[in-house]
Amino acid sequence: MSDEKSVDQQLHVQGRDAVIAQSDGVEWRGGKPPNYHFSKVAMPHERISRHAEGSLADIVERVVQVFELELSYKKNPAQWVSMVADQLRVRVNGGPSATAEDLVEKGSYNMLIGENPYYSASEETFESSHQVFHDAFPGGFFWEVLDVYSPPPVITFKWRHWGTFNGPYKGFEPTGKRLEIFGVTVARCTDDLRLVEVEHFYDNSEFLSRLTGGCPV
Question: What CATH number was assigned to the domain covering residues 4-212?
Fold first, then answer.
């Protein structure tokens, strides 16, 4: 890995606010960058991990948050700074790999969830897939790094994704309960911590079943 100072100065390592602040000319979905108000207000009180600033866990969390920002909101992969877009491969649980073009067209929710009894990616567009979860978790759907098990260039880490089920999900009424999903990710990156290959391991069916009370959609 290149020296620590130069890595820390990389835009994607500085976090989402820095990327948004330096986004002149970026093609945003919806015409403007996202507002992470709920993450700033609610997440500090709801998270269960605390990482020292500049620690590897802190850096990994910032990089992956920028990764999510770019997959979800930047329309042009050439403008992604957190990954090597023309080499990027993303997959779940040993399944087929998705390219940057796949993610731009279909969306990260569709590519990372796929087909199961509680969600059908084939029935959703990029936009509708995001709306489904924005509706179900109107107060925010947050993500944090819990532990980092290996350093670059192949980073393995455990994470938590959570939100309060306060809105409808595909006709099912909300319960008001906080729902969590835990997983492990293995990410191969460049010397400057841009992502090249990302594989997630988690049980998405178990999480989604709690949105429907176990009833298929």
Answer: 3.10.450.50
